[in-house]
Design goal:
- 49% of the residues lie in helices and 13% in strands.
- It has 638 residues and is α+β, with helices and mostly antiparallel strands.
Length: 638
């Protein structure tokens, strides 16, 4: 019999509608009942494409004994973290405080009837293992303690809430241009010299770190910065994390060499990686980076979009098995290649180049991988055969939520791509139009909606921030003044709703949560809104530079202390210190400035102006005039 989740729009909540647990969605009704019946609260947060969420559902939430005990002694609440990032963000902080470890999904939080958290974990197995108690044992102990001595739990929970209150920084750090060298040295401590990337397994792309390293190389010709960025980008592209068959990148790698991912593909990862590969192409002019970026765009448009909007994610599992859609048996590949006319010698070459072996590299199967980024023609042809093999399989579940911030990330990357290949311009402009039509209604911005439903959840800081920078990228590409004006409105709304004397809040509705200084799942929304304000300071009004300064000053101590994980803010600081360069001219003349993305200086804007010729300015003055853009570009390359 279906539970309360059957009426919810979220695909993740729908996945749990037939659990025997009496789940509530996040509603006041659930918390009121917990108070009235004096029951503990179990909060479970996940998302539809999360592998370990599926594992916990099968092991724990489908267990009748667990369900019976939870239904009798707890109020159980299920939340889609993509639908309610404010709820997730707050309770991830709870988890980090209680465990002194980073969180993740599924997130498991236990609270008093008054909604005060006292215990946190991520995945909890049914039976004791991995040094963890079993789920049933755990909840029985909680109920026993709560019935015997409820005040002990309540006292601990109140102390936790006290420590979770936002703290003001103890001091501000003054930055100068030496922050670039400091950042590079800090990144070196975590850099994997062999396989690229930062930190140990599991390994995540860290696109903002890569982007900032590329900027530092362009500013200071720091070869170590370029080396770390390129080694990371090249190793991530070899296969595993990158799907060489369908295109696109998976969420993260479970090993150090990017071979074995959890196979879910997220819109935000692909959008951000597309931007990083484009930035690497502009920095080095190596065609392989452009090729990979365009491959990401092709994947997104083939599998992850409808009506010019981009879906949130595709699942790691299919037919109840992780990676089943993506991996290959040795014999099936040989048989397919023979059927498609490959000679024995060609088959031998393909197996060697794409690392396909009888024993496999993933649970007896093969993840396609190549040490050579530039594939030979035989390998490229073989990938077409492997793709046709997949067409006989069931494609992983696609979560068709449209999330404003994630769509904006993709739109930004498409506008950057459009300055290389005009075919992406129509895609970017149509996506911008459709997103604004769907999510920006009556001067209110919304966060999420299914592709065929109306939005109801108001936007968070990340939605304002990422949409504003996407629109500003659109202005840089098209000089469409409507993009600039709308971005200006969004930033003003964000300042009104979420800004407080340097501090940015991620949400200030039902749950108040502070924006992070660090780049976690994706770059800090406080840092991204600062990026938008720096652009507006150069193009619209210098007052936005003061708001940027206040923001950087407020978070400066944390940025300095955790530099490798605050890369987006470091990029903002460098931009603040070095200043933008603005090329001004009539709109039709600015179309002749074709090399701006390839110039050594990374912080260049365009602005339509009714002046004769071209003028080069910074945020406070103009200092060069010319009749052609090439002279301006040569000056910027000095």
């Amino acid at each position: 019999m279906a539970n309360r989740l059957q009426k919810e729009q979220s695909p993740y909540l729908q996945q749990h509608q037939n659990d025997p647990i009496d789940w509530y969605p996040w509603r006041e009704e659930a918390f009121q009942r917990a108070k009235e019946e004096n029951k503990l609260i179990f909060l479970s947060i996940g998302y539809s494409s999360c592998h370990w969420c599926h594992v916990m559902q099968k092991e724990v939430f489908a267990n009748s004994e667990v369900a019976k005990f939870l239904n009798e002694h707890f109020i159980s609440i299920k939340v889609d973290k993509e639908e309610r990032p404010d709820v997730d963000r707050y309770y991830q902080e709870v988890h980090q405080f209680l465990t002194q470890k980073p969180g993740g999904w599924p997130l498991s939080i236990f609270m008093t009837p008054q909604k005060e958290p006292f215990f946190a974990a991520t995945y909890i197995p049914l039976e004791p293992r991995y040094g963890m108690p079993g789920f049933l044992q755990l909840i029985k102990n909680m109920v026993r303690i709560y019935q015997k001595d409820p005040n002990s739990i309540k006292k601990e929970a109140k102390e936790i809430l006290h420590y979770l209150k936002p703290q003001n920084p103890t001091k501000a750090v003054r930055f100068d241009q030496s922050i670039a060298k400091y950042f590079v040295k800090a990144c070196e401590q975590f850099f994997d010299e062999v396989h690229g990337g930062f930190g140990s397994k599991p390994k995540f792309p860290h696109t903002s770190t890569i982007n900032t390293l590329l900027d530092i190389y362009r500013l200071e010709k720091d070869e170590k910065a370029l080396h770390m960025a390129e080694v990371s980008l090249q190793n991530m592209a070899k296969g595993g994390l990158r799907d060489l068959v369908d295109g696109g990148f998976c969420r993260y790698s479970t090993d150090e060499k990017w071979l074995v991912p959890h196979f879910e593909k997220m819109a935000y990862d692909n959008a951000l990686l597309m931007e990083s590969y484009l930035k690497a192409y502009h920095t080095t002019k190596k065609e392989i980076y452009k090729s990979i970026a365009f491959e990401i765009a092709a994947f997104i448009m083939e599998y992850m979009q409808s009506n010019a909007l981009f879906y949130s994610a595709s699942d790691a599992d299919s037919e109840g098995e992780e990676g089943k859609y993506f991996v290959y048996d040795f014999d099936e590949v040989v048989e397919k290649l023979k059927k498609d006319g490959f000679s024995d010698k060609e088959i031998e070459l393909v197996m060697q180049k794409l690392q396909i072996t009888p024993q496999g590299n993933f649970e007896g199967k093969n993840i396609i991988r190549s040490e050579e980024l530039e594939l030979c023609e035989t390998s490229k042809k073989a990938l077409h055969s492997l793709k046709s093999l997949r067409k006989e399989r069931i494609y992983p579940f696609i979560d068709k939520k449209i999330i404003t911030s994630w769509n904006a990330m993709m739109i930004k990357s498409l506008f950057i791509a459009a300055r290389i290949d005009p075919k992406y311009l129509e895609v970017a402009e149509e996506a911008t139009k459709k997103l604004l039509e769907k999510m920006y209604k009556d001067e209110h911005l919304y966060h999420v909606a299914l592709i065929d439903k109306e939005p109801t959840i108001k936007a968070f800081l990340e939605d304002y921030a990422y949409l504003a920078v996407a629109l500003l990228e659109g202005y840089k590409t098209t000089l469409n003044e409507e993009y600039l004006a709308t971005a200006n409105l969004l930033v003003n709304d964000a300042l009104t709703q979420f800004f407080d004397e340097g501090r940015w809040y991620f949400s200030k509705g039902e749950i108040w949560s502070e924006a992070e200084h660090s780049d976690t799942t994706y770059p800090s929304s406080a840092a991204v809104i600062t990026e938008a304000m720096l652009t507006l300071a150069s193009l619209v009004d210098e007052k936005y530079k003061h708001f940027s300064f206040d923001t950087i000053e407020f978070y400066s101590e944390k940025i300095y202390r955790y530099a490798p994980w605050s890369a987006k803010f470091i990029e903002d600081i460098l931009r603040f210190l070095y200043q933008d360069r603005i090329i001004k001219a009539k709109a039709q003349n600015l179309a002749n400035c074709k090399e701006i993305d390839f110039l050594r200086y990374p912080f260049i804007l365009l602005q339509a102006s009714e002046i004769d010729g071209f003028m080069l300015c910074d945020s406070s003055s103009c200092y060069m005039q010319s009749q052609n853009c090439q002279e301006i570009e040569e000056k910027l390359n000095e």
